[in-house]
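Researcher: Can you fold this with LZUJQKHR in place?
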Amino acid sequence: MTTRIGVTGATGRMGREVIAAATGREDCEVVFAVNREPAGGTVDGVEIEPAAEFESLVTDREPTVVIDFTGPESAADYVAACADAGVAFVTGTTGFDDEGYEALEVASEDTAVLHAPNFARGVQALVNVVGEAVRNLPGYDVELVETHHNAKRDAPSGTANRLLEEIEANGDFGGRTHGREGEAPRETGEIGIHALRAGDITGEHEIVLAGNHEEVRLTHRAEDRGVFAAGAVDAAVWIAGQKAGWYDFADVISE
Ligand SMILES: NC(=O)C1=CN([C@@H]2O[C@H](COP(=O)(O)OP(=O)(O)OC[C@H]3O[C@@H](n4cnc5c(N)ncnc54)[C@H](OP(=O)(O)O)[C@@H]3O)[C@@H](O)[C@H]2O)C=CC1
Ligand SMILES: O=C(O)C1=N[C@H](C(=O)O)C[C@H](O)C1
């Protein structure tokens, strides 16, 4: 069965990759692609239409699923329109505040919604092992360093926030410290978080666990944005058969 895909943020770094990944698969068809500004032109042969027409496109072109990599404000609008139309929604957008997450959750009552801050399979593996490392090394200092390109809006990254949840759920920590400056000795139990922004770095996450005259470093490095796009398209194909509800990338990988 062909999964009919709508793409938002189509001329962005990720939108272009999603179109390339979806058009390269025989089981997918990109039925529309929208961008805020500028619309017009094509990406991999797919016409880029104005985002203002999203609501009519999501009804008229009958997509199975929309893949969204935009910003938290637009993702909240897009998911609401998808819920109204009964179209599934896969989003990799990061930087949501509580209101943004609520918009996704409300929509998930009426349609299938999948949010993942990182669609790389290696990051899902990292999420799975980091808790185990923390449990095995009680009392060790934990620091997280994430590095991204210089145009990234949100910090720390969505992936870093997900890893932090996993770290905190598996150890006894006192709080988060974002960077350090001046007289700033490390407090017992704090988790240090450092966001680097430079050049066109695709995305790196490293967790450092140190103590007892030893250190463990768990690192994921994405070498190409195609890895995120491939995961998002896998998620889109998977979600086509799901009922309304809230899903994450672990659900896709576990099947
Ligand atoms: N989950 C994952 O695996 C990954 C997640 N991401 C996340 O995806 C998101 C996009 O990243 P990236 O592609 O690098 O960003 P870009 O800035 O390159 O692209 C974003 C696109 O979304 C559009 N957009 C932004 N805001 C709005 C809005 N309010 N209304 C309509 N369209 C909008 C932009 O349009 P315009 O050109 O007009 O601004 C642009 O086309 C980020 O949140 C990022 O963190 C990124 C990589 C992997
Ligand atoms: O903005 C990016 O580029 C990325 N964002 C995601 C995040 O915030 O975790 C995932 C990836 O690291 C690339």
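Model: Folded with LZUJQKHR in place. The pocket of NDP (ligand 1) is lined by residues 9, 11-15, 35-37, 51, 69-71, 73-74, 92-95, 116-119, 158, 228 (CB under 6 Å).
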